[in-house]
User: Which sequence fits this backbone?
């Protein structure tokens, strides 16, 4: 319990440090921390100008991690992402030039604008934490996290992410507009935030230590059963006719892992059903596939998830 208290205090300090630059966006900041300490990746969806890139770069500064932003475009090649072998005429040999994916925080900006072959190149890095260039395989530095953004407003000329790749993302977070009071705070403090220096809160070693510490968060049998019932309900297409495909076993593992991190963030060494409910939307909204009829009726995946949570009992 003492270790959890120490972790929670550090997280509070981290939130306050990031808050010097980023106003509001509490769900976004929470989900980035959850994904980082759960050892997963996060998909961010929101309109342009909502500080997605600024939030990620601020976190990397506060954690002392290497940050790389990659603008995904239709003409992007896999070698632009992972690197390639370049011939050196003076040495008369090929040398490996590593790409921008060799970082700790990789922001894949507008990931759905790049063709499938580029998206697939990112898949090995996300899943295996390694990159193959030619005949050589290079491990990626830990911690490694991909934060991919999607613009929901403009879909022309985009390449839809296949379900198999969406499933690789631990969370999908919807980035909302700021409230009126937050917008006013953004306006009044904009000059001050431009010159604010961010202090380093955690080291790489401490981040990796926290990722291992999360394994010690206890989960009771009723909580395990609750996770299983939620995932099973997402596959019950007879009861929930809006659903075509439900969540995979990776979703149940993701729900467990993220709930453990959330419990630790709230100074607990045990998971409550409320933690499961809090993380269910982020874990499931990109894994549940709705029917064309449901989409035509403007049914949102979040509404279906809410219905599942209301119907699923807690023992």
Assistant:
């Amino acid at each position: 319990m003492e270790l959890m208290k120490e972790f929670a205090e550090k997280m509070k300090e981290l939130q306050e440090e990031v808050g010097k630059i980023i106003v509001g966006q509490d769900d976004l900041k929470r989900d980035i921390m959850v994904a980082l300490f759960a050892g997963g990746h996060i998909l961010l969806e929101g309109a342009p100008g909502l500080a997605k890139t600024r939030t990620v770069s601020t976190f990397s500064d506060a954690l002392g991690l290497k940050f790389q932003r990659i603008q995904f475009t239709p003409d992007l090649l896999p070698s632009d992402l992972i690197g390639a072998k370049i011939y050196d005429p003076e040495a008369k040999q090929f040398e490996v030039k590593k790409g921008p994916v060799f970082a700790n925080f990789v922001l894949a900006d507008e990931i759905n604008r790049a063709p499938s072959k580029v998206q697939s190149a990112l898949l090995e890095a996300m899943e295996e934490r390694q990159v193959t260039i030619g005949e050589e395989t290079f491990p990626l530095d830990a911690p490694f996290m991909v934060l991919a953004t999607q613009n929901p407003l403009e879909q022309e000329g985009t390449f839809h992410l296949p379900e198999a790749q969406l499933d690789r993302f631990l969370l999908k977070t919807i980035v909302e507009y700021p409230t009126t009071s937050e917008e006013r705070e953004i306006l009044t403090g904009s000059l001050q935030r431009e010159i604010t220096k961010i202090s380093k809160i955690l080291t790489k070693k401490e981040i990796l230590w926290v990722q291992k510490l999360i394994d010690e968060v206890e989960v009771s049998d009723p909580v395990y059963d609750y996770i299983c019932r939620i995932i099973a309900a997402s596959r019950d297409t007879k009861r929930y006719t809006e659903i075509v495909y439900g969540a995979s076993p990776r979703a149940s593992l993701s729900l467990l892992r993220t709930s453990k991190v959330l419990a630790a963030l709230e100074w607990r060494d045990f998971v409550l059903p409320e933690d499961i409910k809090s993380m269910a939307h982020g874990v499931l909204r990109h894994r549940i596939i709705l029917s064309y009829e449901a989409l035509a009726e403007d049914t949102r995946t979040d509404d279906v998830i809410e219905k599942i949570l209301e119907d699923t009992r807690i023992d």
